[in-house]
Design a protein that fits this description.
Blueprint (H helix, E strand, L loop, with lengths): L2 H28 L17 H8 L1 H34 L5 H12 L3 H15 L5 H25 L3 H9 L4 H12 L1 H17 L2 H6 L7 H7 L7 H21 L1 H11 L1
Helix pairs in contact: 1-12, 2-12, 3-6, 3-9, 3-11, 4-6, 6-9, 9-13
Keywords: Cell membrane, Membrane, Transmembrane, Transmembrane helix, Transport
Main location: membrane
Membrane topology: Multi-pass membrane protein
């Protein structure tokens, strides 16, 4: 092995340790008793932290709330972003590029800027302390990025593909669902990935809109930090919070890989 190859291998190893090290430590701590519990001593290896999670209605509810609003958010985002991306890709109208730019500009707006007006609006609509309220708010930030991603994938499909389907007698909805969606599946996978990541880890609106109920997993973890924090329980909750993300990446890994390649 050359010196250059050795340095590259050492750099890769250092990066792997830097990334995987904290995860391994979290898993080890989640299996370690960090506060006294009946039948176990501090420092013992045990599943008591995971048992305590499923024995707590609040923690179990937070997992369900997060899965509910993330799923609703991704579905609503795709329902809106797919037709909008198709329209921006296939049709030309006055100010179309400006609309596209405004969408992206809105996406980079700090969430805290909109927190007060959204709180007042949702208080009047009765959407506070509800996972669906958080899902709607996240759509405001996920729809622009989803449109941007999907528009580029749709633009990569030749217009002749649409025209051939229409000449064969397919309606626009039938063509869109039966022909176009399978072709841009990698783009849909990439859009789902980014929407999921943003919604799953977002804390600003989750904190503001769920003061008494409907708390997601991020707020449940935050509430575990008290005067005497059970670090093992916190780490167990964190490890469980990683499971849906890892599962999503596993199921759409091929689409994500192809999507990033096509995007490049």
């Amino acid at each position: 092995m050359t010196v250059r190859g050795l340095l590259r291998a050492l750099a890769f190893l250092a990066l792997a340790v830097f990334i995987i090290g904290p995860l391994v430590q979290a898993i080890v701590l989640s299996l370690t008793v960090t506060l006294p519990h009946p039948g176990v001593s501090v420092g013992d290896w045990s599943l008591v932290n995971y048992r305590n999670i499923f024995a707590s209605p609040a923690l179990v509810a937070s997992l369900g709330n997060s899965l509910t609003y993330v799923t609703a958010n991704v579905m609503l985002t795709l329902v809106v972003a797919l037709p909008a991306a198709y329209a921006l890709s296939r049709y030309r109208f006055v100010g179309d590029r400006h609309v596209f730019l405004l969408l992206l500009a809105f996406r980079i707006t700090p969430p805290v800027v909109l927190s007060l007006p959204i709180f007042l609006l949702f208080a009047r609509l009765g959407l506070l302390n509800s996972p669906f309220g958080i899902a709607l708010v996240h759509c405001l930030f996920n729809i622009p990025i989803a449109i941007w991603i999907l528009e580029s994938f749709i633009s990569a499909v030749p217009r002749a593909f649409d025209e051939t389907a229409f000449l064969d007698g397919h309606s626009l909805p039938r063509f869109f669902v039966g022909h176009l969606l399978p072709v841009i599946a990698p783009g849909v996978g990439v859009a789902c990935f980014f929407c999921f990541i943003f919604s799953w880890v977002e804390v600003v609106f989750a904190r503001i809109l769920t003061s008494t109920g409907g708390k997601p997993i991020t707020m449940a973890i935050d509430a575990l930090f008290t005067f005497q924090t059970d670090i093992g329980l916190v780490m167990a909750m964190m490890v469980l919070s990683l499971v849906p993300g890892v599962a999503l990446i596993w199921f759409v890994r091929n689409h994500i890989a192809r999507g990033f390649q096509l995007r490049a």
